[in-house]
Amino acid sequence: MPFITVSDEVAKKSFTQVENKFITKYLPVLEPMAVKVYLYSLYVYQCGNAHYTVDDLAQTFSITADEAKGCFEYLEELELVAITSLNPFEIKILDAENVYGTPKKFKPEKYSDFTKSVQNVIKGRMISTNEFREYFCLLEDYGFEQNALLMIINYCVNLKGEDIRSAYIKKVAKSFADEGITTAKKVDEKLAAYTSSTPALIRIFTAAGIKKQPDVDDDRLYKKWTGELGFDEGAIVAAAKYFKAKNCEKLDNALLELFKNRKFDVKEIEDYCKNKNSVYSLTLEIAKSLGVYMQDSAPYIENYVNVWCNFGYSFESLKTLAVYCFRHGKNSFEDADLLLRKLYDEGIVDERSVAAYIEKQTADDKLLKELLTACGLTRKVIDWDRESLLRWRGWNFNDEMIKEAAKLSAGKSNPLAYMNGILSGWKSEGIFGLDKIARQSKPAASLKPDGAAAKAEIERHYYDLRHAAESRAEKALNTATADEIYGNIRKQLNELSIQFAFAEEGGEKAEVLEKQIAELDLKADERLKELCIDKSDFLPRYSCKKCNDTGYTPDGAPCDCLKKFISGLKF
Fold this sequence. Notes:
Elements: H1 8-11, H2 20-26, H3 32-47, H4 54-60, H5 65-77, E1 81-86, E2 89-93, H6 112-121, H7 129-141, H8 146-160, H9 166-178, H10 184-208, H11 216-228, H12 233-242, H13 248-260, H14 266-290, H15 298-311, H16 315-327, H17 333-345, H18 351-375, H19 383-394, H20 399-409, H21 415-429, H22 452-482, H23 484-502, H24 508-530, H25 560-567
Antiparallel strand pairs: 1-2
C-alpha cells in the first residue's frame, strides 16, 4: 500500500503544480511564511489571475505589504523568484537549481572569519543565514578562494552601495568563475584591468547622459567596442549622442549598426546619422519608382540602400537608376541590386558615368528596336537582345553590318537566331564591311552548307532547343509561384537569403537565419508535393545532356548531336 493516496474526488479536481526540485531541496529549510507566499504565488499564476497584487497577497495572510515583499526578497536571495519591478511590485518565478538533494549544510566554524569579513564589508544591513549559505556555495561549488570572493564582494559594494543585494554579487562572481578567475591573484588582475577602463567609461557615460556607475558588464562591452569593433572613445561618444542612447544596450546596438555600415570616424558617424531620415525618404522614392510595396522599410534600407550609398552612389543616381530598372522590367530591390553591383564592378558609380551608361543603354535599345522591326518582329526589347548586341559588337561588327544581317533575316521563323548564323559566317570569312558582302540574287538561305545559311540554320536549331527547354522550366516556376502559399514561401526565402548573405559568417544571426531558411525549404517542398509539381522542373531539361543544346561540349569540341544535325542539312 502506498504511503500517500488520494480519493477519486480529489483526483478529479484542479491542482497547483509545484516543482519536485522545490519540495526536495527547499521546503525542509525555508521559513514557513516564505513557503506559504511561494506556494500561493504559484496558485495565483496558474489560476491566471492577472489583476492580483502584492497587497492582495498580504491581506490573504494577514501580513503587511512590506512583510510580503520581504518574503519575496528572501526567496530572491535563494533564486526561487526574481523581483522584476518595484513599482508596481512584480515578480517572476524561477526554475529551482539542482534536481536532487537539499541545500548544503555548512559548519559555521569553517567560515567564521569569512562571515565576519563579509559583514564588515556589507555594513548597511544584517546578512541572513540563507545569504551566507549562497556565499558558501560559491566557495565550494565554484572553487573560489575566500580572499578572492571577499575582493569581489568589496568591489560590488563599492560600486552599488552597502544595501546591495546578494543576487548581484552572485552574478558578478559567477561571471568571474566562467572565465576561470577564482584565485585572489587572478581577481586582483581582473579588477585592475577593469579599473584601467573605468575613467573612459565614466567619460562616455557622462557625455551620453547614462546615469549609472560602470560595472563589469560595461567593461566587457567597452573592450568589445574598442577591440573587436575598432571604435575610439570619441566615436563611441558620438554614437551615443547621435543615436540618443541612454543605456549600454542601445549604445551597443548603435555601434553594431555603424560597424556594419563602416562608419568609424566622428565625422562619418555625424553624416550617417544626419542622413538617416534622408535615406529613409530615398528608400520610399526608390520603392515607388520600382513599384514595390514595403510593409517595413528597415530591411530594405539595411540590405540595399545603405549598401548602395556605401558603394558611393549619390541619391540622384539611385533615383535615376530606379526609374531605369522599372522601365527595363527590373521591378524589385533584388533585381536593382544585381544591376548596381554589376555597375559597381565596372566602375560606373559617379553621376556622370551613370548618366553615360543610361544614355548608351537607351541608344542601344533604340537600335535593337530598329533591328527587331527590320526582322519583322513587333515585341519589346528584352535582355537576350541586349546580350546578343553586345556579343555581335564583340565580334567587331559595326551597327551597319548588324542592320544588314537583320534585313537578311526578315521572314525567317527565328530571325535573331538566323542573324547569329549570318554574322558568325561573316566573321569566319573575314567580312566586316558592307562593300565586302557578296550581292547575290538568291536569298541568304540558298548559300552553300559551309556558308552563312548553314551556320544560321545551326544557330536557329540550337536556339529553338534551348528556348524550348528554358521556356518549360520558366513555365513550371511561374505555375508554382502563382500559388499564393508557395509564392509567399519563396518570397520569404529570397528575403532571408539576402539577410544571410549580409550576416556575419559564423555569427549567431547567421545561424538563426540558416535554420529559418532550412525550415522554409522543407515547407516549400511539402507545398510543391501538394501541387503535384516536381522541383526539378524548375531547371531546363535539355535534349542533349552532353552539350546542353549548344552544339559544343564543355571542352569546345563539336558535339555528336551537332555532327548528326549537320549531316541531315539540305541546301
